[in-house]
């Protein structure tokens, strides 16, 4: 899991930590080859994270036992995170025009949701690393925007509505079905809603 995290987050940190090297390497090999290589390295890192995380979950080290109430906080944080992911994907929305980098912020909130609702060492390492990376990535991107005088268009209400709907639907599908299918944990079920 640690190797996968280093590979995945390392690849995603190149623009932040080594921008000149990244630019010169892209100029040397071309954008298509760079994207292909980046996707391959990211996939290898992600598969190692998934494989390693599945292994450490079989023999968990408990750091703390979160209250059952933290699931409500986790639902809210992850829902906002998904809406921010929607805003990152849909052009011309007000959320992106105000926050500029909603993908990094959404990833940070998604990771924070997992941190507050899990007390295992593996969760702390995995989601804590992603949270710290997300904050650093967002701050670096905002500094880069200032340095490069990037201006974001104002955005429209219709695109904003589309981002909110897309994020909410993706969140609902994830917590009701996809999360259980992928990791055998169902964070939202009808039984939990009416406890």
Please, could you describe this protein's structure?
It is a single chain. The chain is mainly alpha-helical and 195 residues long. The chain has 2 domains: 59 residues; 135 residues, no CATH class. The chain is globular and about 45 Å long. The two termini are 35 Å apart.
Defining key terms:
single chain, 195 residues, mainly alpha, 2 domains, 10 helices, 77% helix, 0% strand
Shape category? globular
Q: What fraction of residues sit in β-strands?
A: under 5%
The overall average pLDDT, rounded, is 91
Low-confidence stretches: none
Share of residues in helices:
over 70%
Number of domains: 2
- What value does the Rg take, in angstroms? 18 Å
SSE order in H/E notation? HHHHHHHHHH
Euclidean distance between termini CA atoms: 35 Å
Structural class: mainly alpha
How is the biggest beta sheet arranged? Answer: none
Number of strands: 0
Number of helices: 10
């Amino acid at each position: 899991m640690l190797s996968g995290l280093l590979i995945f987050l390392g690849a995603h940190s190149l623009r932040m930590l080594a921008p000149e090297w990244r630019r010169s390497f892209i100029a040397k090999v071309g954008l298509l080859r760079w994207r292909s290589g980046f996707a391959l390295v990211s996939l290898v890192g992600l598969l190692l994270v998934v494989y390693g995380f599945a292994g450490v979950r079989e023999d968990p080290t408990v750091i703390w036992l979160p209250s059952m109430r933290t699931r409500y906080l986790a639902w809210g944080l992850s829902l906002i995170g998904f809406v921010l992911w929607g805003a990152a994907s849909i052009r011309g929305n007000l959320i992106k025009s105000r926050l500029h980098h909603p993908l990094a912020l959404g990833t940070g909130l998604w990771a924070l949701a997992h941190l507050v609702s899990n007390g295992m060492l593996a969760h702390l390492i995995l989601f804590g690393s992603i949270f710290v990376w997300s904050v650093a990535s967002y701050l670096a991107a905002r500094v880069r925007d200032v340095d490069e005088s990037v201006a974001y268009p104002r955005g429209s209400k219709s695109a904003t509505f589309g981002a909110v709907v897309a994020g909410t639907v993706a969140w609902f599908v994830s917590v009701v079905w996809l999360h259980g299918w992928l990791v055998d944990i169902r964070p939202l079920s009808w039984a939990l809603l009416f406890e």
